[in-house]
Design brief:
The complex is a heterotrimer. By secondary structure, chain B is an alpha/beta fold. Chain B has 10 helices and 13 strands. In chain B, helix 8 links the parallel strand 12 and strand 13. In chain B, helix 1 crosses helix 10 and helix 5 packs parallel to helix 6. The radius of gyration of chain B is 22 Å and the shape is elongated. Chain C is about 30% helix and about 25% strand. Chain C has a 5-stranded mixed beta sheet with strand order 3-2-1-4-5, sandwiched between helices. Classes of the chains: A alpha/beta, B alpha/beta, C alpha/beta. Chains A and C meet through strand 4 of A and helix 1 and helix 2 of C.
Chain lengths: ~280, ~300, ~110
């Protein structure tokens, strides 16, 4: 079973929850797809065995063969190429390139524009007590983590094994990419109006994708009425609650997992997983 | 008139208190335009209580659409597409609009000219009035791409307002992370306030966002939120800041008052005394920095 | 010397300089020596996404301009100007007339 954990608002405890969920199971693989700021390793403490560079194809223009016809720059939807015919120069801006292949497709001159690899990030793999640990880490300066997320899901997901996927925060493309093939989505929220507002946005995504969803209310001070009302109206169950606790915050700040902070919670998380997988 | 100074509040890690700090600073800066550039999860409007003056829809990259009547289901589009955006539903090739990147390769490669690029509205922006000044914000539709461009749009509207109102500052609540929307928010900024928390995740993410702001050559200052949750880590952040010549602008304690005020949809500094002192310090340090800059120029 | 000027409206030499480089409403090509307007065209790229400055700079170079007058271009557009041997004169206030005068006075 593939369970993706999302949050909408950052800082609600998504990673804190997802890592402890993975660590509570008999066997599970943990995927850290929050590639801009991957922090799962802090709590999982894996033994890293592999670091795989992840690359994307980008154009390289041979100025000797190029006729400066400008077809590539005109066709590029991202303005990543600039051709200066009078000066016989071809400029490429890698930060804007989406590796789509259009430039290569339209270039009319043989071997004037070839595609070469550009490194955008790294995939770290290893093991922890319950299974495999796979993390994506985007290079600083890269505009989008979506291709890295997509690459990890395509090449490193074992469909036979349980996977807990820690998705990025937010409500846009990287979140969609991380959850679109999940069997179940857990939204970790907090009772604040910010948490509620962002949760409503991610619910729109899970509904659009048609994936079964359950909500964890973290930092609960008994003030989650508005959240619960919204969920009731949308027929989404509250599947777990974690009370607001300064002790948990302190523990979190030191990198101590939730299961090592709150006694009995490991059993509860295991039961939660069983409930989810039994439908 | 001097170009208005752009101050952007970032964090790296989400949830450290960007909006709390940005909205509270909006109370201190007299002469400014406020903007919420966290377009994926725009929350500032909840505290600012805006009256919309004008707004608009925001068009994302055009997405591909297959005309099923002309389509012969040859599958060339599927072979070409690098974003896995072509699905086959009941034998008919269709574009998955959520996955489509708008590159136009399928459209260029289609032998039947059956694929056209269609504009799609992916968000809305708003220019409004609030008790604390003019406020610009935007909302990206959930699942959409292009947040970087919408951030640029928000900044542009804020700049136009700053010119017509002749304000000295543009105060921007920025997005979390280090990706495209953050670089759009950083580009052209005069100062970035990085709000962090004393957790291992917070420190790790702080280092990443500092690298990014250095790359853009934007002056940074750090605010440590909930500093008293872990004094050891707070010291680690202070040491890091010293080693890298970055100002610690202020330290804010953990506060239930802040949580309570936000749940009442109110700007926290108005009621929470524990915020007043650190925020006054932050305000003075930033305005002091700009005054010094001006003096040095002359 | 041909100058490429990003303007917000088409009003001859009284046209206001646009506050944004690549998103100006119109582009003007101006003959600096003979002090006359060569042509003005609408900017069809002003609503594009990232990298619009790159396109604009490419157009300026393509038109044989060796001077660009207007708002501060972004770093990538600046790169194109550098490769294209185009001098950039940054000014965001006033009209084409003011900008040309200020450039000649400097």
């Amino acid at each position: 079973m593939k369970i993706a954990v999302i949050s909408g608002k950052g800082g609600t405890g998504k990673t804190y929850f997802s890592t402890s969920l993975a660590m509570s199971l008999e066997e599970a693989d943990f995927f850290d797809l929050d590639v801009e700021e991957p922090n799962g390793y802090i709590f999982i403490k894996p033994d890293i065995s592999d670091e795989i560079q992840y690359s994307l194809p980008v154009p390289q223009i041979d100025e000797d063969r190029c006729t400066f016809c400008n077809k590539c720059a005109e066709a590029c939807a991202y303005n990543a190429l600039s051709i200066l015919p009078q000066l016989k120069k071809a400029l490429f801006f890698p930060e804007l390139c989406h590796s789509c292949g259009v430039c290569s497709f339209v270039c009319p001159v043989d071997k004037a524009l070839i595609e070469v690899e550009k490194n955008i990030g790294v995939i770290r793999k290893g093991k922890f007590l319950k299974g495999n640990f796979i993390e994506g880490r985007l290079n600083i300066g890269e505009p989008s983590g979506v291709p890295l997320i997509s690459g990890i899901m395509k090449d490193h997901l074992d469909p036979e094994r349980t996977a807990i996927i820690d998705a990025p925060p937010g409500t846009s493309c990287p979140v969609v990419e991380s959850i679109k093939n999940a069997d179940y989505v857990i939204i970790v929220t907090e009772p604040s109006p910010f948490g509620l507002s962002d949760m409503k946005l991610v619910v729109e995504i899970t509904k659009k994708l048609g994936i079964k969803t359950g909500v964890v209310i973290n930092k609960d001070r008994g003030d989650s009425k508005a959240t619960e009302e919204f969920l009731r109206k949308n027929e989404i169950p509250v599947i777990f609650r974690i009370p607001y606790s300064l002790e948990i915050q302190k523990s979190y700040s030191k990198g101590i997992p939730l299961i090592d902070t709150v006694p009995g919670i490991e059993k509860k998380l295991k039961r939660l997983y069983e409930d989810i997988s039994n439908g | 008139m001097d170009k208005p100074k752009e101050i952007v509040v970032l964090s790296g890690k989400g949830g450290t208190g960007k909006t709390t700090i940005a909205s509270s600073l909006a109370v201190f800066f007299r002469n400014k335009i406020i903007a919420d550039a966290d377009v994926d999860a725009a929350n500032m409007y909840i505290l600012m209580n805006p009256n919309t003056i004008k707004g608009g829809e925001f068009a994302g990259k055009p997405v591909a659409k297959i005309d099923s009547k002309s389509c012969i289901n040859c599958g060339i589009c599927n072979d070409l597409c690098r974003f896995d955006a072509i699905d086959i539903i009941d034998g008919q090739h269709k574009v998955d609009q959520l996955s489509c990147d708008g590159c136009t390769l399928c459209s260029l490669g289609c032998p039947e000219d059956a694929i056209l690029m269609e504009p799609v509205m992916v968000g809305k922006w708003f220019s409004s009035d609030t008790e604390y000044g003019k406020f610009v914000y935007a909302r990206l539709d959930p699942g959409a791409e292009n947040s970087g461009n919408l951030v640029t749009m928000v900044k542009h509207q804020a700049k136009l307002l700053a010119e017509s109102e002749q304000t000295s500052y543009i105060l921007i609540d920025g997005p979390p992370g280090i990706g495209c929307p953050v670089t759009s928010a950083l580009s052209g900024a005069d100062y970035t306030i990085i709000v962090t928390e004393p957790s291992i995740s917070g420190i790790s993410d702080l280092k990443r966002i500092i690298k990014l702001s250095d790359h853009f050559k934007v002056k940074s200052g750090i605010v440590i939120n909930k500093y008293d949750v872990n004094l050891d880590n707070t010291k680690k952040i202070e040491d890091f800041a010293n080693e890298n010549n970055i100002d610690i602008l202020g330290k804010v304690p953990h506060s239930f008052c802040i949580i309570d005020e936000i749940s009442k949809r109110a700007i926290p500094v108005l009621q929470c005394s524990e915020l007043k002192e650190p925020l006054t310090k932050i305000y003075k340090k930033i305005t002091g920095y700009f005054e010094l800059e001006n003096e040095t120029k002359k | 010397m041909k100058a490429f000027i990003a303007i917000s409206e088409d009003n001859g030499i009284e046209s206001k300089i646009d506050t944004r480089f690549g998103r100006g409403n119109y582009f003007m090509v101006y003959d600096m020596q003979n002090e006359n307007i060569i042509n003005v065209e609408e900017n069809r790229f002003k609503n594009e996404g990232h990298g619009v400055g790159i396109k604009t700079a490419g157009i300026a170079v393509g038109k044989g301009c060796t001077l660009a007058i207007g708002a501060q271009p972004g770093p990538k557009a600046e790169q194109v100007f550098k490769e294209g041997n185009v001098e950039v004169f940054v000014i965001t206030e006033g009209t084409v007339k003011d900008a040309v005068r200020k450039y000649k006075e400097k």
